[in-house]
Amino acid sequence: MKLEQTNRIIIKIGSALLFNETSGSLNKEWLNSLAEDVKYLRENDKEVIIVSSGAIAMGAKDLDLDMKNMKMDMNQAVSAVGQIHLMGSFKSAFEKNEIKISQILLTLDDTEQRRRSINARRTIDTLLKLGIVPVVNENDTIATSEIRYGDNDRLASRVAQITSADCLILLSNINGLYSADPSTDEDVKLINKVSEIDKDIEKMIGQSISDYGKGGMKTKIQAAKTAMLSGCHLAITNGSIMRPVKSLFEGRPCTWFEPTKTPLAARKQWIAGTMKPVGKIIIDDGAVDALKKGSSLLPAGVKSVEGNFERGDVIEVLSSDQNKIGIGLAGYAAEESIKIMGHKSDEIANILSYSYREEMIHKDDLVLI
Fold it and tell me: What DSSP assignment string belongs to 94-143?
């Protein structure tokens, strides 16, 4: 994949890259080079999101604890200590490149429950519009089984899914997917491109796990499956060199997993095929024409609201003569929609005393029938 083909890029950083496994200290020089990579991407008009591991490792280093012998409750407590130091290190490295960052803590549940995932998406969208780089990490202090083994690989793919990213880069300590385990087979070949994860690909998965990182190739393949279904390209590449992202787009060896559809097409397929509508909105003829031309649904074009739905629920859009126009994700709950229907978007804040968005249904959340 070429850099010019991307718009929104997610970079996932493994703990093994952030820390020296011998000393346990933070690789500050490497983190500084990553910040330079992000600056390079932003100079090329790319939106960047980072998903980082490392809070537990950093907390264990600060408290002089052995990570191998820690139980779940200790992992959670140590993560709370390490998260502060981790973000401080990111802030220091990125400030040198005049980049503002923000911290977002998520669990897998936050990306799988519809309303919470919508809120997460909108927060990330707003941060990107403000020119801020979101740094996402697993919320280990409240996670349970998710804290184990490769969570942030899967979390990164979920973030790619909910934000409609078109490129996810998994920076690790391996070059990509090999035809066999490179530690035991000298005749292995690096797989450059994967268009389908079939049984042959599954057989190539190794089980090597570093002490500092909890993910092996298995979790990366799971992440690739999610990314591909979401219309997102995914790269597995060795990030241990300086400027790893720039090197990737300059042709450094890696494995690209390529989807068959765009993120927007995948999102609309998900809306149309996986959820049952729980309400209806009836719109006027002008709004029907606007939707067919690719516009979002604004409250001014809404004539009536039916059903008891919440923000983020799937609802049907009908014309005034009850013809089904499409389905989409509600930008406002039914009670709110009734209050603002027929009004201009700039009146929403005065009517409700707050405003989530200008649209009743955004065009990216709408599937026309």
Answer: HHTTT--EEEEEE-HHHHHSHHHHHHHHHHHHHHHHTT-EEEEEE-TTT-
The token pair at 325 is: 């126009």
pLDDT beyond 90 at 249? yes
Q: Is the pLDDT of residue 148 over 60?
A: no
CA distances from 246 to 92, 241, 251 (A): 21, 11, 9
Q: What is the C-alpha to C-alpha distance for residues 236 and 174, in angstroms, rounded to an integer?
A: 8
- Which tens digit of pLDDT belongs to each residue from 181-198? 777 778 889 999 999 988
Structure tokens at 58: 């950093």
- CATH 3.40.1160.10 intervals, the chain: 3-263
Q: Where in the chain is the domain with CATH 2.30.130.10?
A: 275-368
Predicted TM-score (pTM) of the model is 0.83
Domain spanning 3-263: which superfamily? Acetylglutamate kinase-like (3.40.1160.10)
Q: What is the pLDDT of residues 201-248, one digit of tens each?
A: 877 775 444 444 445 788 899 899 999 989 999 999 999 999 999 999
* C-alpha to C-alpha distance for 150 and 209, rounded to whole angstroms: 9
Of the given ranges (27-41, 143-157, 276-290), which has the lowest mean pLDDT? 143-157
Distance, CA of 177 to CA of 192 (rounded, Å): 8
Q: For residue 8, give every residue at least 6 positions away whose Cβ sits within 8 Å of its Cβ, in sequence order, or none.
A: 46, 47, 48, 49, 128, 163, 164, 165, 166, 167
- DSSP-derived letter for residue 161 is H
Residue 108 has pLDDT above 80, yes or no: no
How many Cβ atoms are within 10 Å of 349's Cβ, its own excluded? 12
Q: Report the topology of domain 275-368.
A: 2.30.130
Sequential DSSP letters for 24-41: --B-HHHHHHHHHHHHHH
**Which two structure tokens, joined as six digits, stand for 310?**
């919440």
Residue at token pair 């330079």: 36
